[in-house]
Specification:
Layout lengths: L1 E4 L4 E5 L3 E5 L3 H12 L5 H7 L3 H12 L14 E4 L5 E4 L5 E3 L13 H13 L6 H8 L4 H12 L13 E10 L18 E11 L2 E10 L4 H11 L5 E5 L11 E5 L6 H4 L1 H18 L7 H13 L4 H12 L7 H4 L5
Parallel strand pairs: 7-10, 10-11
Antiparallel strand pairs: 1-4, 2-3, 4-5, 5-6, 7-8, 8-9
Helix pairs in contact: 4-11, 5-6
């Protein structure tokens, strides 16, 4: 049964007027831009703004369809809001029904939207992050598994697919995170051997002597193929790249590469910001998660980078996180728990 139409870019049904197309603009457009420009900066403000399911659903609608509803099936811009299904719209063109959470990280979730919003706010604004155990306690969730799945799904919304590559002056290097399973030796070999270690490549954009943005990626080895793939995927052409004299960085196409021979000099003297990033990463992993694991390591690196790149705009990061989450495909549980080979 059709109910009152959705108020953005919909067909409005009226017995006297027939059908009328209402497009986004005027007060609705102004209200939307105004709501997006102001982010909750305290727990009290957040609680007041997102106190109900309808308030959360309205916010998700704006993040998912900022220019008005668009049917994922036929791209029609007209729809009716259904009364029989919560926050679901029926396309006026093809009849397809679409929830505000369909096809997002919240797809088919039984949790209230208010729980999702609280989890996103806590993960985005905590300076050091929050573990699943802490999240379970803070939100009063019934099981650790529920809290863990919330964190795992939100981490997958922490990489903007449209983000700009690093540019200008960039420091790059690699690091290792010790890791041992029952099949690894107790004594971790020294040097660049990958036995008992997780290998990570990193880069930091430096502007005026201070770091701006960063990238981290799990790599399989320190060879030329792995290093080139990371650098070319993380930095823009004509970037001034500063590294140590490891030969795998040689012959990078379209990159202004400067290799520094370290000799007896400590690496953190020559490349201060990338080594500070690595140091903070390792302390963060130990402090919040009591050590990182191979399973889903890249997603934990993405969480660290998300927070580092938004360290001066933590509350705005909540808006970014849900905005990306509204465009991120759902991930089933068996994929979340899949162990690394």
């Amino acid at each position: 049964m059709h109910e009152r139409p959705v108020h953005l870019n919909v067909v409005y049904k009226n017995e006297n007027m027939g059908c009328k197309l209402v497009t986004l603009g005027g007060e609705q457009g102004e209200a939307m831009s105004g709501s997006e420009s102001r982010f909750p900066k305290s727990l009290i403000e957040f609680q007041g703004r997102f106190a109900s399911e309808s308030a959360c659903a309205e916010y998700l609608f704006e993040r998912r369809w900022p220019e008005g509803f668009v049917c994922p099936g036929c791209s029609e811009g007209r729809a009716w809001l259904l009364k029989t299904k919560a926050f679901t719209y029926e396309c006026a063109g093809c009849g397809r029904q679409t929830s505000v959470t369909a096809g997002t990280i919240m797809h088919a979730s039984k949790l209230p939207l208010t729980i999702w919003f609280w989890a996103a706010f806590l993960m985005a604004t905590h300076s050091n992050g929050i573990s699943a155990l802490q999240l379970q306690s803070q939100l009063g969730l019934g099981s650790y598994r529920t809290a863990w799945m919330l964190c795992a799904k939100l981490r997958r919304a922490m990489v903007n697919p449209e983000r700009e590559p690093l540019s200008g002056l960039v420091e790059a290097d690699e690091t290792i995170i010790p890791f041992r399973t029952k099949n690894n030796p107790i004594v971790v070999p020294a040097g660049r051997s990958g036995v008992g270690k997780m290998l990570v490549a990193g880069a930091v954009e430096v502007d005026g002597g201070t770091p701006r943005r960063a990238r981290l990626k799990v790599i399989e080895g320190f060879g030329k193929d792995e290093i080139h793939a990371f650098v070319l995927g993380a930095v823009a052409p004509n970037t001034r790249l500063v590294t140590d004299d490891w030969p795998s960085y040689n012959d990078l196409p379209d990159i202004k590469h400067k290799a520094i021979t370290l000799g007896p000099m400590a690496a953190h003297i020559v490349l201060p910001w990338i080594h500070r990033l690595f140091s903070n990463l390792k302390r963060w992993g130990l402090g919040v998660y009591h050590g990182l694991r191979r399973t889903n390591l890249q997603h934990y690196l993405d969480e660290f980078v998300f927070r580092f790149n938004r360290r001066r705009t933590r509350h705005a990061a909540f808006n970014t996180l849900l905005g990306i989450g509204a465009r991120t495909a759902p991930v089933p549980y068996h994929v979340l728990i899949r162990k690394a080979a």
